[in-house]
Amino acid sequence: MAEFLTALATYGFLQSALIAGLLASVGCGVIGTFVVVKRIAFMAGGIAHSVLGGMGAALYFGLDPFAGALIAAIFSALLIGAVRLSWKTQEDTLIGALWAIGMAVGVLFIAKTPGYSSDLMSFLFGNILLAPTRELWWMAGLDLVLVVTVALFYRQFLAVTFDEEFARLRGVPVTFFYLLLLCLVAVTVVLLIQVVGLILVIALLTLPAAIAGHYVHSLGAMMLIATGLGALFTTLGLALSFGPDLPTGPTMILLAGCVYILSALVSRQLHRRRAWRQAAMVRG
């Protein structure tokens, strides 16, 4: 750890990587909470893997791959949302098909891009150590969009997340806010791509919020705790991977996964003790 702290004070690329991890934690904390509570992780996975098509097309035509990712993510979110609203009986199959098509299109575009396709592994598994300043500004801007949108429409998102029928009775335009929520998930996916890549993005999007959900049931509290846990996992993952020269993204996810399993065991034990106490009080 001392070696990492010394290198952090010396090397600009490590400082950029740390900032990228902290910026990504905002998205995974705020939007990941909605994904976990509403149980739309599979839909978020479909959005994430469809993004490779946009990144590959942008790379092929000489454009910014993350601009292509953002366009593809929002398009996929709207398409998957429409599928969910209109084709409920075949929802999983259609989302799975979009997932696979997006990946296949992306790989084909990258394969036909002139020159050496060194970016493919970076897209799939992330490369936070190579995050340029330009992408940090991208991430900060996307974070601002997420936080402002959620703050403006928090009550509507809350209603749509917990009970769509009740929200509809209260006059909330459920379809609009549901699709808007999926678009925010799409923006968050683009945020996390630089950190852990497309393959692992769903883990970082959901695990911090899932851990927070073991201990609190308020949506706002879950967001705050999940954001803090996201910052912890990205920072510790960066530190732990530095010395032995391990891939940073998978190290972050492995750390988050281990903490999630431990938290699930602890939470279950606490729940059992609480149930025993309540049963003892009833018998007493």
Automatic annotation (TrEMBL):
Gene3D superfamilies: ABC transporter involved in vitamin B12 uptake, BtuC. It is found in: Cell membrane; Membrane. The chain crosses the membrane at residues 12-35, 42-61, 67-87, 94-116, 136-154, 175-193, 199-216, 223-243, 249-267. GO terms for cellular component: ATP-binding cassette (ABC) transporter complex. It is a multi-pass membrane protein. It holds the Pfam family ABC-3. Its main location: membrane. Belongs to the ABC-3 integral membrane protein family. This is Metal ABC transporter permease. The lineage of its organism: Bacteria, Pseudomonadati, Pseudomonadota, Gammaproteobacteria, Chromatiales.
